[in-house]
Amino acid sequence: MSGAIASLPAFGSAEGSRARRSARVLPGFNITLGFTLLYLSLIVLIPLSALVFKTFTLTWPEFWEAVSSPRVMASYRLTFGASLIAALVNVVFGLLVAWVLVRYSFPGKKIVDALVDLPFALPTAVAGISLTALLAGNGWIGQYLEPHGIQLAFNPNGVVIALIFIGLPFVVRTVQPVLEDAEKELEEAATCLGATRWQTFSRVIFPSIAPALLTGFAMAFARGVGEYGSVIFIAGNMPMVSEITPLIIISKLEQYDYAGATAVATVMLVISFMLLLLINGLQTWQRQRSGGGHA
Amino acid sequence: MTTKTIRTARKGTTESAWVRYVLIGTALAFMFLFLVLPLAAVFTEALRKGWDAYWEALQEPDAWSAIRLTLLTAAVALPLNLVFGIAAAWCVAKYEFWGKSFLTTLIDLPFSVSPVVAGLIYVLVFGAQGWLGPWLMEYDIKIVFAVPGIILATIFVTVPFIARELIPLMQAQGNEEEQAAIVLGATGWQTFWYVTLPNIKWGLIYGVILCNARAMGEFGAVSVVSGHIRGQTNTMPLHVEVLYNEYQSVAAFAVASLLALLALVTLAIKSVVEWRHEREMKAIAELPPERPTPLAPATAVSA
Fold it and tell me: Buried b vs exposed e over A179-205: b needs ≥16 C-beta within 10 Å?
């Protein structure tokens, strides 16, 4: 596994040769690297290894039973399904918001641009209770929907909505810089060659932003899978129906089922490792694509 | 040039007016529904019973102790992650060494670990049944379900913020200025203080405010390691949860409104930092060519 990570090119590896030459000149390599490794070991690596070691104290049948009981399986389906739908919605609307912010001008654009990062800055618990207040049967939005039989809070719909809120900035902020750097000459050439605006978008612009869009999608999805704070308020948390996997870990802990909590957490950790590697790979691909475009 | 020729010249790379209006309208409607309304709801719900009820809710002793604990947590986590972020960015950006990309992946790792898992791992290390549990019990030291655990979990989830901002920035700036300083006889510390720090100050502020927002607002990880003891181990987000579950809606949203204000201040500072940084970059780009921009050699190599 470590081999796979190490084989990814270092970011900014273009500077490699210059940095290597200067390694003798600039002081502080040993102390900064030493401190970085010590800090990461104490805060991240040793605690994470506790999870792995604890998992290995379980026998295989115990582990399997903990991670594949019907209630846990239902939570995987909800967590991954809702994250997938939310990430897809965010791809569409994130691209739209990024496009509008880069290409058009309208009053209040700077405020809208700043507001995109709200889900990064707003604590998840606050987002959770305010979305619930909006969508519950007596809320601003909920009161108009409930008479029509549409329920958005306290069921899986609520999970999707919370995850759309959480994931939006990931897509916008990965697509936005790529759109800004896109070369208008290519579009002009396409138009000169007789392409309609839609053809230019789908054949020229879209392929150039596709890697960034995919990266944003993967980031929003990864964040959604692990999200807890905003979801638990709006989900209703009914077992088998609207219970997310992180909540399963917490309820197992509250019942002092440390082994079960650890087993489910290990599954989550392995999945987030794989998503991290995927995102790293996508970003490398994106850099190569944009690097090739400039050359 | 007449307006007509300008219009036809632009036609090739933009859309007709109604397409533009529809796109802008849809994007703004989406932003309004998903971002503005929830934000507005926080303040409206907090003030539902008027300002008096609002102030009263904020003056509760439990609310105060939650605020104090949140400030304490951020005050410990922030400086530690600041020192870590600078050290990590210095060694990753200024040197080339074996396993560097592995190290950067490792720095990013806390971003992709679910907050709940982040909390759980500290329970597994410091909890009663954990690695250090029996030893800690013997000396009567409480870490999990107490304040130190909350601080540790907060540090974990905010580890990458500052390093993540600084690494690309310092890589783009290269090493020339620092090398010049060293050659001219500056010590390593002077080089950092007078050469590197002024160059990275915007990135640093940016990282610090985002780190602070997350440290004060973290919920999942802290929820696992907190004992949920009112007035003792409840941070502001946890206190919001307790009040909300007790159907004290106004009080819950009153505390939440403080956190929402923090988010707004964070966004405001962040935007100002971005605009100033952009302006400085523009000023550098307009400098005469005898002082090449630090970015130029890097792009030349990669092309």
Answer: beebeeeebeebbeeebebeebbeebb
